[in-house]
Design goal:
The protein has 5 helices and 2 strands; from the N terminus they run αααααββ. The protein has helices at about 15-20, 45-55, 60-70, 70-85, 90-95, and strands spanning about 105-110, 120-125. A two-stranded antiparallel sheet has the order 1-2.
């Protein structure tokens, strides 16, 4: 980070800290990240090409930015989107760990496209859908 690989904060890092971290007199890169080595991009042309690759999917600015920064990751994500639907609307914990039996969540679906708030409620009905949780005081843990 001190080398400037992730950019620089306004005003740079404190010189004393940089000198200690970059032992041996290495100089940090203070140029704008990506400015010198990236080619200019025609955003609308890239949007149209991506939309064609995704079989006509309407590509918004967020999708286009994700694709331009991380093309493989974005295309993998869109494959999951095609299979499972708009997973980015799920709460983070639910996305990564699933739901507990009996748990309910709310996820807003396509808010700009609909003037009303569309709410998706899902109920985990099968124990297979969620990992059981045991506390250290649980009688189920005692044998």
């Amino acid at each position: 980070m001190m080398k400037g690989n992730l950019g620089q904060p306004p005003g740079g890092f404190p010189k004393g800290i940089v000198d200690k971290v970059l032992k041996g007199g290495a100089k940090p890169d203070t140029s704008r990240p990506g400015g010198a080595h990236l080619k200019p991009v025609d955003l609308e042309k890239a949007r149209a090409e991506l939309s064609a690759e995704l079989e006509g999917f309407k590509v918004d600015d967020e999708d286009l930015n994700g694709y331009l920064m991380y093309p493989k990751v974005f295309l993998d994500y869109m494959g999951r989107h095609r299979t499972y639907g708009p997973v980015r609307t799920l709460p983070t914990r639910t996305f990564f760990y699933g739901m507990e039996p009996g748990e309910e969540i709310e996820a807003e679906i396509d808010p700009p496209a609909r003037p009303w708030k569309s709410v998706c409620r899902r109920l985990a009905r099968h124990v297979k859908m969620a990992r059981p949780r045991y506390s250290s005081n649980s009688t189920a843990n005692r044998a």
